[in-house]
Amino acid sequence: MMGYEKGSPRKELERTMALPIGVVAAVLILSIFIYAVLYSSTPPSEPVTTICDGKFNPNMTYLKTLLTKRLYGQPLVRDVVVKAIHSHLAAPKPDKALVFSFHGPSGVGKTFVADMIAKAVFTDGMRSPHVHYYSAEVDFKHTDDLHIREYKKRLRRDISEGVRRCQYSIFIFDHVDRMPRDLIDTIKPFVEEYVKVDGINFRKAIFILISYSASDAIIKMTMKLRSEEIEREDFSLEGFEEAITKSALGRQAWCPDLKIDWYHDHPVTGYYHKIQTYLHRPVYKHDDKEQYLYFNGTHWVLLFETRNAATLLMYVRDKPMRPEEVRKQWKVVQNDGLAFRDAPEIRLTCSEMPVPSGGNVCVDTRTHACLETVQVQRIVRCGFLWLHSCQKNFTEEHQATCAYTHYFCCKGFIQDGTKCVKGHLPWQEELLTQGLIDHVVPFLPLSVEHVELCIRDVLREISKETNMTMTRLRRLADEMTYLPKDAMVQYSKHGCFRVRNLVLTSITDLD
C-alpha cells in the first residue's frame, strides 16, 4: 500500500464513500442545482445577447467551484487561473491576449483545466464554435515544408476568423511541444501587444498552450518539497516558474551580472549584480551604490530606493532579454519616467553570453545613438581683470551615431558556449524570452490519495459507487504505478490518466 501525503483529503474520501445511496443521490442532485444556479447567477459586466452569438457567459464563481471540487493536488493552478481570467475578462482594454502555458506530466489535469475554462466562459464549453482545440499529434503531425505552409495558412485563417466572430475566443494547443517550431512563429503576432492585426483586435482572446515540457523539473521539485514535509498548499509559484523557465530555455533567462558602459561619472555606469525581489522579478543592484535597475521590456528603469523596486515591479511584466539583445543599446529612464538628457541609450553587456566564434556565425553591423568625446577650442577672457583673450581646450560630449558588430548563430544553429551547433531552441524560447506568455502554470504530479479521488469521481459518474467498498477502492488505486520505487514520497507515473479504464475493468470483474 502506498504512503499518503500528510494532510491529504483521505478522510473526506472515506466519509463520502461510506454515505448511504439516498444521501449520495440527494447530495448529487443538490450539487447539480447549485452549479446551475452559480452558472447563471453571475452575469458578465456587459450585456451578452449580442456578444459571441449570446454564448459568452463568463462565470468565475463557477470556474472556482470546478477547480476546487474536481481538480486534485493542484493548489497553484487554482490560485493563478481564476485571478488571471477574471482580470483579463474584466479589463475593458487589455494590453494583449491572455496566454497560459500549462506544464506538467501526464494525467495531472492540464487538458481538464482547459475544458473547465471553456465551460466557465462559454455556455457550450468545448463544443462552442468559439473554442478552438488543436492537438499537435492530430492537426499538425507532418513536418515537411508543404504541410507546414498549409498549417500556417490554416492557423492564420482560424485565429483571424475566430476572433472576428468573437473577440473572446479561446484557442487551446495540446502537445504544443511537439508542434513544428514555425507554427509558434505564426501564433506570435496574435499574442503580442499590437492594437490590431489586419484590422482585428486580438487582445481579448485567450490562448492556452499545453505541454509535457519541464515535467522532470516539476516532479523533482515537488518530491523535494514533499520530502521536507512542505504541504502543496505552501508551495511557491515563483520557484516552479523559475524551474520551468530554466528547463524550457536550457539556461538562465537573466544574467547574474551586468556591466553598463556610458559616459564618465554618470550614475548608471558600473557593475550590477542580480538580487531577488518581489514576485521573483529580477532587479540588479549597483556594486557600490544604493541604486537598482530593472528591465520592463522596452527600456531599463533606474531606481534609487529598494522599496521602489518592490512596489514598481508589481505592475511590470517580466520580459527577459533574448541572447542577442544583451549586447544591444538600451534606453534608460528614471523611475519618474523622465529620460536621461542627451544620451538616450546605453551599452549593456551580460557576463554569461560569450561572443560566438568559428563556423555558422552570422555577422550584422548595427548603428545606435551614442555620445562622443571631442576636444574643442574656445576663446575666453583671461588675465588681469579678464582684459585679455585666451584660447583654451575643453572636453565636450556630443551626440553621435556609433556602430558595433553583432555576432550571432545563423538560422538552424544554436549557441553552445562559444560555438554554434546545429539545432533549434525549444518552442517556448521565442514566447518566454519576449514576455508573451503571461502565466507559466505548473501542474504537480499526483499522489495515491489523489488517484483515489479520481477513482471515486469515475465511480460516481457511472453510478457504481455503492458496489465498491473503500478497501476495494484502495486496492484499485494500488494497481497504478508509483515512482520512485520503495521511496517514502511517491507519485503516480501516469497521474489519473488510466483510472477510467482501470475502474471499468474492475466493475466488469465485479459484475
From TrEMBL:
It comes from the Eukaryota. The chain crosses the membrane at residues 21-39. Keywords: Membrane, Transmembrane, Transmembrane helix. InterPro entries: AAA+_ATPase (IPR003593), ClpA/B (IPR001270), P-loop_NTPase (IPR027417), TOR1A_C (IPR049337), Torsin (IPR010448). The keyword Membrane applies. Pfam families: TOR1A_C, Torsin. GO terms for cellular component: cytoplasm; endomembrane system. Residues 96-237 form the AAA+ ATPase domain. The keyword Membrane applies. CDD domains: AAA. GO terms for molecular function: ATP binding; ATP hydrolysis activity. Gene3D superfamilies: P-loop containing nucleotide triphosphate hydrolases (3.40.50.300). PANTHER family: LD13476P-RELATED (PTHR10760:SF2), TORSIN (PTHR10760). Belongs to the ClpA/ClpB family. Torsin subfamily. This is TOR1A protein. It comes from Branchiostoma lanceolatum (Common lancelet). The lineage of its organism: Eukaryota, Metazoa, Chordata, Cephalochordata, Leptocardii.
